[in-house]
Amino acid sequence: MLKTHNDFEVSGPVVVVVLDGVGVGKHDAGDAVFHARTPTMDWLDDVALKTTLLAHGTHVGMPSDADMGNSEVGHNALGAGKIYDQGAKRVDVAIRTEVLFERGSDDSETFFEMVDHVTRSNGTLHLIGLLSDGNVHSHIDHVEAITTHAARLGIKRIRLHALLDGRDVDGQSAHRYIEKIEAHFEGLSGVDAKIASGGGRMLVTMDRYEAEWDMVERGWKAHVLGEGPAVGSALEAVNSARKENPDLNDQYIPPFVVHDSNGPVGTIEDGDAVLLFNFRGDRAIELSRAFEESDFDKFERHRVPDVFFVGMMQYDGDLGVPARSLVKPSKITSTMGELLASAGVKQLAVSETQKYGHVTYFWNGNRSEKFREDLEVYIEVPSDRVTFDQRPWMKAAEITDATIEALNPNSGIRFARVNYPNGDMVGHTGDFEAAVIAVEATDLCLKRLLAAVRKLNGVAIVTADHGNSDQMYQLDKNSEPIRDSQGRFVPMTAHTLNPVPLWIYAPGLDGLKVRELATRRLSNVAPTALYLLGLEPPEHMDDPLILKRSEA
Ligand code: 3PG
Ligand code: CO
Fold first, then answer.
1. Which sequence ranges form a coiled-coil region, renumbered to this chain (predicted)?
2. What is the SS3 assignment for 356-397?
3. Where are the domains of the chain?
4. CA-based Rg of the chain, rounded to a whole angstrom?
């Protein structure tokens, strides 16, 4: 239970504003945040308490500091006020220590059920997922390890349904991962292992938050039914898409189905097992539902094979999706959302579809349900269905309208979190000019939101979950932008390793001081917000970013 303190009381709401994908870059040619005109952020530099937060690697529970941050780990840390081992790390450990592959170990039960199922039915082991080493949703090393052990245990037929990345890794790198996994398959003796279908991740299978079920339908058709453009190999699919458009990012490679002279090489049939090897849930839940729900009605599945379906992890702890998973996620508990709900404090969460689950599901520790229906207001502004270089302003204005309206003085809302997706969603397109506009659109809306917070006598904590728009071009070893053969800068679509900004805008609260800490990171935000709400941050959380009055 949360205790109160008497240091001061913020009478208005405490609002955490997440400028998704807006990191603190190197002020170089590709730093769209630096190049954007941002009068509001510049003004915050003058009037607010200011620092930066680490948002990558071990600071957010990833295996190493070479791992960039991402929205899942970032919002988990923001909402929980504590660092948990993230999916990437848990799977890495289970595979490296081989507990996943030791029959009889606590962590291998589902893996062996899956293997035994395929052996008994003399069926095929299908692996579906994002084929890259981005380590945001998946890692190719996991696919190699799992198929190596499946082969060792006698599985004879493996089919990979490869979603091509270009979003967490270089924009045109799909061929490298395809060649790597095909070489690995060649080396598995006595096993018939092939890529059977796939496509770019933003067209096929990996939709999130029900933004576009059509993507999942295209995936179902290609992976399960073997319907879609026929190719002789995955590499052929990549090459012909690039021939048509040499600048095409891998995210947008159309769906493909690999055929041999008998037709599709790997449809999914009764008796098979299907492993969705992504560990992150947002873009894995919809396909899981298509496999598992008996009354599924989001699209016509035509044929529903009777398979042993398993996810790399359980993606939704509340809904129990999927029913079976290989590796247990960290149990993220006593998040700030949960604590406020049990303390009877009313909360608000607002974003547009693309990031709606980030401020609800990820914020609450990968739980999709509310803690207290009567105390939590969740607002989803429907996202456009375009690539966001075409609409870099996205729904920033509508998110602002909705937040200001919801925070009206009679609302009783004491705490809010709001996510502006622009810096991230536009950053992922690799379009520098669009990213500049994205950051400017956010800045303009922030001005309006901060004015509203001030009027309500509230406080705003403005930060980000990880960087993205702060580095839009690939850099060489000397941090110089790389140019292609035509002299153009090579876009970088992925997140960055950069820290993120942190401003505490607390008009009327004099004397706040930033706490000296060895590292300041995202997990320091929740205890800060609780303290500003007049509540003592609980023991299990990291330190607040500001000194308590008694310490100042
Ligand atoms: C995505 O899913 O869009 C990217 O892999 C990561 O972006 P996010 O972590 O910002 O959602
Ligand atoms: Co992103």
1. none
2. HHHHHHHCCCCCCCCCCHHHEEEEEECCCCCCCCCCCCCCHH
3. 3-85+331-536, 88-311
4. 24
pLDDT tens digits for 495-511? 999 999 999 999 989 88
Q: Which two tokens stand for residue 87?
A: 């999916």
358 Cα nearest atom in ligand 1: 11
pLDDT at 1: 83
Segment holding 233, helix H or strand E: none
DSSP letters for 60-78: GT-SSTTSPP-HHHHHHHH
Give the pLDDT score at 8: 84
Q: Which residues contact 97 (CB under 8 A, 6 or more apart)?
A: none
Query: Which one of the ligands is nearest to 425 CA?
Result: 2
Report pLDDT digits (tens) over 259-315: 999 999 999 999 999 999 999 999 999 999 999 999 999 999 999 999 999 999 999
What CATH architecture is 88-311? 3-Layer(aba) Sandwich (3.40)
Do the annotations mark residue 208 as ligand-binding?
A: yes
| pLDDT greater than 90 at residue 156 | yes
Work out the mean pLDDT of the chain and round it to a whole number. 97
CA of 136, closest atom in ligand 1: 5
pLDDT score of 106 = 87
Cβ-Cβ contacts under 8 Å for 298 (sequence gap 6 or more): 210, 213, 216, 217, 286, 289, 290
What the block records as the tokens of 372 is 């207290």
* Ligand 1 touching residue 424 (CB < 6 A): yes
Contact 380, 374 (CB under 8 A): no
Q: Is the pLDDT of residue 493 over 80?
A: yes
Strand pairing partners for 311?
Answer: 276, 325
Mean pLDDT computed over 521-540? 98
Query: From the alpha carbon of 428, which atom of ligand 1 is closest?
Result: 3
Q: Which residues surround ligand 2, an ion (CB under 5 A)?
A: 424
User: Which residues sit opposite 264 in a β-bridge?
Assistant: 259
Of 11, 64, 71, 469, the catalytic one is: 71
Using CA atoms, how far apart are residues 336 and 342, in angstroms rounded to an integer?
Answer: 10
Report the residue among 72, 132, 135, 136 best suited for mutation to probe ligand 1: largest number of ligand atoms under 8 A from its CB: 136
Mean pLDDT score, 452-472: 98
- CA gap 165, 177 in Å, rounded: 10
Q: What per-residue confidence (pLDDT) applies to 552?
A: 77
Residues 6 or more apart whose CB falls under 8 angstroms from that of 112 comprise 103
Q: How confident is the model at residue 549 (pLDDT cuts 50, 70, 90)?
A: confident
Q: What is the phi/psi pair of residue 373, to 5°?
A: -50, -40
pLDDT of residue 386: 96
* 217 Cα–ligand 1 center, Å: 21
CA 204, CA 290: separation in Å to the nearest integer?
14
Distance in Å, CA 67 to ligand 2 centroid: 13
Mean pLDDT of 208-213: 98
Residue 458 alpha carbon to ligand 2 centre in Å: 29
Confidence of residue 233 (pLDDT cuts 50, 70, 90): very high
Is 325 one of the annotated active-site residues of the chain? no
